[in-house]
Design goal:
The structure holds two protein chains of two kinds.
Chain A (H helix, E strand, L loop, with lengths): L1 H8 L1 H13 L1 E4 L6 H6 L10 H9 L28 H12 L1 H5 L13 H6 L7 H6 L7 H4 L3 H13 L2 H16 L5 H8 L5 H4 L2 H7 L13 H25 L1
Helix pairs in contact in A: 1-2, 2-11, 2-12, 10-15, 11-15, 12-15
Chain B lengths: L5 E4 L29 H15 L18 E2 L4 H4 L19 E6 L18 E2 L8 E12 L5 E12 L10 E6 L6 H5 L3 H9 L12 E2 L4 E2 L11 H13 L16 H5 L10 H12 L12 H12 L10 E2 L12 E2 L7 E3 L17 E3 L9 H4 L14 H6 L6 H9 L2 H12 L2
Classes of the chains: A mainly alpha, B alpha+beta.
């Protein structure tokens, strides 16, 4: 999800957008509320989520709408028969059914609401169903998975150090930026400090860094921060400190 | 690594898009909290919700909080058998696996003694290296029942056959197939005082209805949960389900669910001791306890109002008590309040046709705890494969009524002798619950 924005907007502009979004957002922890609950309850106006969570909530009665952005990415699900399957013929028949029109149509059940992989299934679906094949034809699915996959954990770690850990501080700084701008004061340098990522894109794509960060899984054991992450944390802290000083000077 | 993935932006857009028409059926109606939880309680409720929806994983796993599934198990999550907190159903035939149903096993004795090889429940699945115990096929037989006005209702009766048994012949065994019930409102049932239950049992009733509190163990605790009321409280019921259905150990069930005849099961790695911590068990118990009971619907519709009168007149309300009161509860939202579960939580003889012939503590093989009827009208919208009665044999509410025997026989007879419009009114009332 992070990389969809970075690829569509470019590295610098993408992180700048994330910084502004994050500073205006409530972050949701695992084992906590759902994005859909927050919107339905009116505690937030807009949420960022994965389509099937929201589409399933809507199909089950939630008063919500879901909008696919003009640029998005697909994360395909897979089906496989294990090498040592005790019933390879049965498994193959099952996989065949899942990929058939009847099997793919099951994905539109209110509890599932995933996107079928067969173009022909979309012709049979009622209403205004998002069609990824049409979106791709319109150029909306230019997401480069080969670039995204190896840097997934790296981007998550940057997001954590730049936007999640200092979230409260970042929120407050951005509120002051907006107040200053409403008062007609210049904030160009401050914005630059609050939106600049702690590394450039070439560094994020470096295999050495990706190896260092490793594979981080949600719910995995808390790993000690790598040297790289400590550096990013310090760099972001320094930038926020400078931004705060400049904001203070504006006020004076 | 602490990852917070999703954002709920408080962005105020200049123009929000038009909202899509929501579905007319709120299929999440059984997942809402009781109104009035404070912020701290709501966070606890949400932690419990997360555990209730969690797909448990095989140990060892990188996610140490939710590992320990199996070695032998039925399904991988609470919501597998309680879909959207709703009710399960039975397979449509022998070729279909049990998805939200299980088979209890025992050898004669009270409380039920586990089968020496297969334990107290058939666990169809096993983790890699541990063979699942086998399958219980459901073969349906049908018979027709003709009502007084000539209307014919087809009823189906399950016959179980064990196949693919991995640990040898099962031999003589008592079996009882069970469908997962919906779980909303259970905190209120948990908070009914044992003295209230004893008083309900003592009340004189007509139509040969009696009612008995199941008594458990040396302390003779009053049973409330389980289809034969063989569990005293909600925490025990939840820990028992974790243990029996997923083989997740907890402070109440610290040992893995393996019999001495299952060495691979006994040697398999575990996900911690216990796998479900006391804190997690408390959170999920709080969650289930604070699920709001299903709200009544269409209470002003004439058919529903007439049906409500019939419900009492036919004698249904003698056991399916419309109103109970909770006693003292440590949870303020459950403390001393009236509620409408349509059960008395007592055991009743339901006749030979529904008997599982498997005694459980004080419950005989013909006795069942009165099923709470709240929410019954919504269950088919939440799970299209829902089945009523303990083993899911009834596909409709009408079929369920017609299976009543024993202490329910008089009520069933009045229903079957009523004309079609009267029967429809009663069903409409039940659909409003």
């Amino acid at each position: 999800m992070i990389d969809i924005v970075l690829q569509a907007w470019g590295w610098e502009r993408g992180w700048a957008l994330w910084s502004e979004i994050a500073a205006n957002a409530v972050l949701i922890d695992r084992g906590s509320t759902f994005v859909t609950d927050e919107i339905v309850a009116g505690r937030s106006a807009v949420g960022i989520s994965i389509d099937f969570f929201v589409n399933s909530a809507i199909a089950n009665g939630a008063s919500l709408d879901f909008i696919y952005p003009a640029h998005t990415g697909l994360n395909p699900a897979h089906i496989a028969v294990t090498r040592d399957s005790g019933n390879p013929a049965g498994a193959a028949a099952f996989a065949g059914f899942i990929l058939s029109p009847a099997g793919q149509s099951l994905l539109t059940h209110p509890d599932i609401r995933r996107l079928p992989v067969r173009p022909d299934v979309y012709n049979e679906l009622p209403g205004k169903q998002y069609n990824p094949f049409a979106a791709a034809a319109n150029g909306g699915l230019q997401f480069d998975s080969d670039t995204a996959r190896p840097r997934l954990a790296t981007l998550a770690a940057v997001f954590q150090q730049m936007l999640v850990e200092p979230h409260d501080e970042l929120r407050e700084l951005w509120q002051r930026v907006r107040q200053a701008e409403a008062a007609g004061q210049p904030t160009g340098t401050i914005r630059e400090l609050l939106t600049r990522p702690p590394l450039d894109e070439a560094a994020a794509n470096s295999p050495e860094l990706q190896r260092l960060i490793g594979l981080r899984l949600e719910g995995g054991r808390e790993a000690a921060l790598t040297h790289a992450e400590l550096t990013w944390r310090d760099r972001c802290t320094q930038q926020r400190r400078q931004a705060a000083q400049l904001l203070g000077a504006l006020k004076a | 690594m602490k990852i917070r993935l999703l954002l709920a932006g408080a962005l105020l857009l200049a123009a929000l898009p038009g909202f899509a028409e929501p579905s007319t059926v709120d299929r999440d109606i059984l997942t809402r909290p009781l109104p009035g939880l404070n912020d701290e309680e709501l966070q606890r409720f949400l932690r419990g919700r997360s555990l209730f929806r969690q797909s448990w994983v095989i140990a060892p796993a990188s996610d140490t909080e939710v590992d320990g599934l199996g070695p032998l198990y039925n399904r991988i999550a609470c919501i597998s058998c309680h879909p959207r907190n709703g009710r399960g159903g039975a397979p449509s035939g022998p070729q279909e696996r049990m998805q939200s149903m299980l088979v209890r096993l025992s050898v004669p004795g009270s409380p039920p003694r586990p089968h020496p090889v297969y334990g107290d429940q058939l666990n169809e699945e096993g983790i890699p290296g541990v063979a699942g115990e086998g399958r219980a096929e459901v073969h349906w037989q049908t018979q027709n029942m003709t009502l007084a006005d000539g209307h014919v209702v087809e009823l189906r009766i399950p016959e179980l056959r064990f196949v693919e048994l991995a640990y040898g012949n099962i031999g003589p065994v008592l079996v009882s197939p069970r469908v997962g019930p919906h779980v909303a409102g259970l905190g209120l049932l948990n908070a009914v005082d044992a003295r209230t239950l004893a008083a309900l049992a003592r009340e004189p009733k007509t139509d040969g209805v009696t009612g008995q509190v199941n008594r458990l163990g040396r302390q003779r605790l009053a049973g409330r949960f389980g289809l034969k009321a063989n569990t005293a409280d909600l925490r025990g019921q939840i820990a028992g389900a974790f243990h029996g259905d997923m083989s997740i150990t907890s402070p109440l069930f610290p040992r893995e669910n393996c019999t001495p005849a299952q060495p691979a099961c006994r040697k398999a790695p575990n996900g911690g001791q216990p796998e479900l911590s006391a804190g997690q068990l408390d959170d999920i118990t709080f969650y289930v306890a604070h699920l709001a009971p299903p709200p009544r619907r269409n209470t002003e519709v004439p058919e529903v109002k007439r049906g409500e009168t019939l419900f009492t007149a036919f004698g249904c309300a003698a056991c399916h008590r419309p109103t109970l009161h909770t006693g003292k509860s440590p949870h303020r939202l459950l403390d001393r309040r009236p509620f409408s579960p349509y059960t008395d939580l007592l055991l009743h003889d339901m006749g030979p046709a529904l008997a599982d012939n498997r005694p459980d503590h004080a419950a005989s093989g013909r006795q069942w705890r009165t099923a709470p009827l709240w929410g019954i009208g919504m269950l088919a919208a939440i799970n299209e494969n829902v089945g009523f009665l303990h083993d899911g044999r009834a596909r409709t509410i009408e079929e369920a009524i017609l299976w009543h025997g024993g202490e329910g026989e008089a009520a069933r007879r009045r229903y079957s002798e009523a004309d079609a419009a009267t029967r429809r009114d009663l069903i409409e009332f039940l659909n409003s619950l």
